[in-house]
Specification:
mainly beta
């Protein structure tokens, strides 16, 4: 069973950058990605990457500002977030699944505990 541990969240000023990491244990050739949930809002898809890293999918809100990559030797995915906005503040959840890239929560069977990202204006 794959387990996911996120790190890298924190407080950043608007316009700043953060890099989130998600380390996977166990069998790791999964599609992996990130969802986020802000207070009072539904959880939403952010980005995902296929098992070998040659295909990625982004939410419109993330395109051009966020970059997802993976290192299968380290069993880790990295979410580089630039030009952060207050509306990016949320708990970010790392996910993994055995399906192809997708935006639905049902595509992902393994979820991390989440890491908080706070963006001050």
């Amino acid at each position: 069973q794959v387990q996911l541990v996120e790190s890298g969240g924190g407080l950043v000023q608007a316009g700043g950058s953060l890099r989130l990491s998600c380390a996977a244990s166990g069998r790791t050739l999964y599609t992996m990605g990130w969802f986020r949930q802000a207070p009072g809002k539904e959880r939403e898809f952010v980005t995902a990457i296929n098992w070998n890293g040659d295909s990625t999918l982004y939410a419109d809100s993330a395109k051009g500002r966020f970059t997802l990559s993976r290192d299968n030797v380290k069993n880790t995915v990295y979410l580089q977030m630039n030009s952060l906005k207050p509306e990016d503040a949320a708990v970010y959840y790392c996910v993994a699944g055995q399906h192809d890239l997708g935006r639905k929560e049902s595509n992902y069977s393994v979820w991390g505990q989440g890491t908080q990202v706070t963006v001050s204006s």
